[in-house]
Amino acid sequence: VDVGTDRNGLLPSSSIIEAQSSGSIGGRRSLEVGQRVSVWVSSKHPDGSFELSIGKAMKDPDRSAFADLAKTGKFIKGTVQTLTLHGAFVQVPSPVAPANLIDGLIRQADAPGIDSMRPGQKVQVRVKFIDERQNRVFFTTAPPAK
Q1: 129 exposed, middle or buried (CB, 10 Å; 0-12, 13-18, 19+)?
Q2: Which of 13, 18, 90 is nearest to 56 (CA)?
Q3: What gap in Å lies between CA 58 and CA 103, rounded to an integer?
Q4: What is the DSSP letter of 116?
Q5: Mean pLDDT throughout 68-81?
Q6: Of 49, 54, 51, residue with least CA distance to 31
Q7: Which alpha helices (H) appear in the chain, and where do they start and end?
Q8: Closest CA to 23 of 8, 3, 37, 42
Q9: In the structure, what pLDDT confidence band is assigned to residue 69 with cuts at 50, 70 and 90?
Q10: Digit-coded pLDDT (tens) for 9-37
Q11: Which is nearest to 124 in space by CA: 54, 69, 71?
């Protein structure tokens, strides 16, 4: 899958099979070369490659818990995974099930000092907002507005 960042990502067959059974690939029973699909990054590897998935990035309990964190402005600990032109991908434990790790993006404008961040670095982030349509969480390192 061409993810549009000068990198390719692997969409495992298990994800495709799951999407076929749930109807997540536009009602089709199979994928075709050149077909556009909505995917999310399920993991990033040290070599910079991505593993992708079709379906939900967050389960409903995670989404609700992150929405609650967005309201409170509470900071949570995360780990920088990768840096891109768009910002830094950070992995945080799910507020519901800490063993589940959720990836989110800190956009350039939402993190003073983002240029000094490095993969593996521990950071304090808070939930800025959740894009429910895209099923993504966005973080910031800035304190809540007073």
Answers
A1: middle
A2: 18
A3: 9
A4: G
A5: 91
A6: 54
A7: 13-22, 60-72
A8: 37
A9: confident
A10: 777 766 666 555 555 555 556 677 777 77
A11: 69
Cβ contacts of 67 within 8 Å, gap of 6 or more: 127, 130
**DSSP, res 61:** H
What single letter denotes the amino acid at residue 121?
Q
- Rounded Cα distance between 17 and 144, Å, is 42
Cα R_g (the chain), whole angstroms: 16
CA pseudo-torsion sign 108, 111, 112, 116: negative
Distance CA 94, CA 10 (A): 24
Among 35-39, 67-71, 82-86, 126-130, the range scoring the smallest mean pLDDT is: 35-39
Contact 16, 24 (CB under 8 A): no
Tokens of residue 112, six digits: 């003073």
For residue 96, what is the DSSP state?
A: S
CA–CA separation, 110 and 128 (whole Å)? 9
> What average pLDDT does this structure show over 40-58?
65
**Sheet (strand 40-44) strand order:** 9-10, 50-53, 40-44
